[in-house]
Design goal:
By secondary structure, the protein is of the alpha/beta class. It has 14 helices and seven strands. InterPro entries: AhpC/TSA, DUF5106, Thioredoxin-like_sf, Thioredoxin_domain, Thioredoxin_ResA/DsbE_sf.
């Protein structure tokens, strides 16, 4: 289950030092500061590519020291998350993991940390877009066997689904009155798609916030946000007994055919899992937090 506790603070001082240090290297290695098209890189991109230059991957003690190896990776992920160019993210990740290949223990350690930070359902830094770059590398690297690569392919397919800008995977569900509806049937300007488990404590917290916060209820009403709460995990009796906990203005659905999970239509790493969709059911926010949904609307106003 997802935790609402935020952590993994980035080291601002370290980033500032690295910006200065990497800029000092630009004159020494001009070729590394050009994009594939031959154009000069921005300061941010150059910093990203040189981020690991002074880090010794063969020093296993340093790599496994949380204050050094893990903190540096957290800082690196912070920069990757701010990089909109997927090709640049791929290039930076490739450079870092190619450097880590010199020590298999270091390589394996960082791969696990990438998964922990970017893909764990409890991580506030989880980011499928950045994890794509890591997975692309793992699937193509000559360091891993074909069997090891196969373990990453299903995950890679999952993170590519329901990306921001894509149309969300359609599915059917039954409602409290026994009727069958589809996600695509909704006509609201926005749909907050909430996958929940009646036994999940964090689901209960999120549902309570959505239901009982007057300012939030008013904001969603003004913006024409329809909440679609779907239980894809479950026990039909538990789902029925839990309906009184939801607002009567929401759509409360149950995946009685179990297709969401069976066909991996959505990457439900934990519960609750939240998506924000537009009126055409295009994904605006993927696997997000309620706070990020609120921030999305307040910034858009």
């Amino acid at each position: 289950m997802k935790s609402s506790t935020l952590g993994y603070y980035l080291s601002i001082g370290l980033l500032a030092t690295l910006f200065w240090a990497c800029n000092g290297k630009n004159t020494a290695k001009p070729d590394n500061n050009k994009s594939d098209s031959g154009q000069m890189l921005s300061t941010a991109d150059s910093t990203l590519l040189h981020f690991w230059d002074q880090f010794d991957m063969n020093d296993t003690a340093q790599v496994k020291n949380p204050d050094k190896g893990e903190q540096r990776l957290a800082d690196f992920i912070g920069l990757l998350s701010q990089t909109p160019d997927s090709a640049m993210r791929d290039r930076a990740v490739d450079s870092m993991l190619n450097k880590a290949k010199s020590n298999r223990a270091s390589f394996d350690h960082f791969v696990k940390l990438y998964e922990h930070y970017l893909y764990d359902g409890n991580s506030p830094m989880r980011n499928d877009v950045v994890y794509e770059s890591v997975l692309r590398y793992l699937i193509k690297t000559d360091l891993l066997s074909d069997l090891e690569k196969e373990a990453y392919r299903p995950v890679y397919k999952l993170v590519l689904r329901n990306k921001v800008g894509q149309t969300a995977e359609d599915f059917s569900y039954i409602t409290a009155d026994g009727s069958t509806q589809k996600l695509s049937d909704g006509k609201a300007k926005y749909t907050l798609l909430l996958f929940y488990d009646p036994d999940c404590s964090h689901c209960k917290e999120t549902i309570q916030q959505l239901r009982d916060t007057p300012q939030l209820v008013q904001l969603f009403a003004q913006l024409q946000v329809q909440i679609l709460a779907v239980d894809p995990w479950g026990d039909r009796n538990k789902w029925k007994n839990y309906q009184s906990e939801l607002s009567y203005e929401w759509i409360n659905g149950f995946d009685n055919e179990g297709k969401v999970l069976a066909f991996n239509l959505y990457d439900l790493k934990a519960s609750p899992t939240i998506y924000l969709l537009d009126e055409n059911k295009r994904v605006l926010l993927k696997d997000t937090y309620l706070q990020q949904v609120i921030q999305y609307f307040t910034q858009a106003k």
